[in-house]
Every structure is written in structure tokens, then in C-alpha cells.
Amino acid sequence: MESDVEFLSEIPASIQKTRMVVMGRTIDDREDKNGRKTVKDVEVSVPIVCGSIAFFRGKNVKDYRTHKWTVYVRGATNEDLGVVIKKVIFQLHPSFQNPTRVVDSPPFTLSECGWGEFKIDITVFFHTDVCEKKLELSHMLKLNPENDYGAIPLSTKIPVVAEFYNEIVLPDPFESFLARVHNHPAVHISKLTDGFNMLPPGVTETYYEMKKGDTKDHPLSQWFLKFSEAEERLNISAARQKVSAAL
């Protein structure tokens, strides 16, 4: 079943921004109805960031389109998530024309203009050999800059960035998926059984010769927040211990 880490109100805000989502299978079988075999006792983790970047367009803008903003689902260190994610649906405020927007190729981003802050519902669909379930997320679009002391003046040069780290955990992956993402920078694999052949027929080692960050350059990447995957996992571990202690 699908689960995530439940956070208590006394957990620090820095930890609350980190979430682990375990995408369990609907049927716990060694092989599915299509003959695809799973690899037991192995977990594939996919660190992702859900966020938005908003630019103030200036005081001379006469209409309601005061800000240009972009909402997105990206790799934690800007990897191409197309190897795992098939498409992403962004549900905008009903005041937008065609508020249900589908992005079916990476980068999974959507840009618009407007004046108000609102919650954006985000649905992530995976490739068929990754997970049959969809992942439901939500993101609060932030347009107005603020700090610990309150609101600060708007700037046309420095955007408002709101991002949150999520780690998707896929237990008992299909062999085909595991072979396809082996050494891909967007995923982490917990451990492998001895003798498992990573490379499917016809695929060469050069396909997997990728380094961290070897992805499509995003025009907004200079504004992306920096996440340490090791630090975020410590946050998740701390949250789990906090929850366990309270049970």
C-alpha cells in the first residue's frame, strides 16, 4: 500500500519539508500477469523536488498578470526524471483557461502568469514497469517574498522560490525497470542479489555512463535550491524516529 512519513507538530520545520513516500504494489506477487518478474528485498529510491519560481513583472504591468511563474517536478540535483516518470498533471486554479494541464515529457514544468497565490494539485504518473499507482502531491504557489520578519519588497530580478524535497521509494522493482535505471543518476538502488544481470539484451554499458547533473539544462536552474540527499535522508530518519517514539 502507499504510505508516507507522518510528521508531528513538534518536529522542526526543516524536517517537515522532507517527505518519504513508499509506493507499494497492488498485488504482492513475484511475477505479474504480463510475466514481468520482480526483484525482492530491493528498493529503488527517486529523490524529487516539487516547487515553483515566480518573477514579479514590475509596477508598469497594467493587467492582472503581475507575476510570471513556473511550477515543476524535478530531480533533486536536476537529473532527468523521464526514466521514471511518464507524465505529470498540474491542476491550476479554476480561473485559468484549461486549468488541467498535462506535461508528458521532461522537463516536467509548466509556466503561466497571474496575480494570486493558490494550491496546485500535482499528479505524477510512472512508466508501466515502474509503478502502477499514481502519486498525488500538492504545492502552494508563492508569489510574494518574505522572511522571518515578514513581507519584503518585490523585485523583478530576484524570484520567489518555494521548493520541497520528496523521496519516492519503490520496493521490489521489476527486473526490466531495475536493469534500465542501473547507474542512472536520477535513482538510488539499495542492494542487489548476486548474479542479477543489469543490462538487458542489446544495451551497452555506454548507455549508463552518466554522471550527476548530466541532464538537460533548465533555464531556471540557477535559482533552484541546493539539496543534500544525504542530509535529507537524515531528516527523514529523524522524523521516523520521532514518530516511532510517540507511538
TrEMBL record:
<protein>
    <recommendedName>
        <fullName>YEATS domain-containing protein</fullName>
    </recommendedName>
</protein>
<dbReference type="InterPro" id="IPR038704">
    <property type="entry name" value="YEAST_sf"/>
</dbReference>
<dbReference type="InterPro" id="IPR055129">
    <property type="entry name" value="YEATS_dom"/>
</dbReference>
<keyword id="KW-0804">Transcription</keyword>
<dbReference type="GO" id="GO:0005634">
    <property type="term" value="C:nucleus"/>
</dbReference>
<keyword id="KW-0805">Transcription regulation</keyword>
<dbReference type="InterPro" id="IPR005033">
    <property type="entry name" value="YEATS"/>
</dbReference>
<feature type="domain" description="YEATS">
    <location>
        <begin position="38"/>
        <end position="184"/>
    </location>
</feature>
<dbReference type="Pfam" id="PF03366">
    <property type="entry name" value="YEATS"/>
</dbReference>
<dbReference type="GO" id="GO:0006355">
    <property type="term" value="P:regulation of DNA-templated transcription"/>
</dbReference>
<keyword id="KW-0539">Nucleus</keyword>
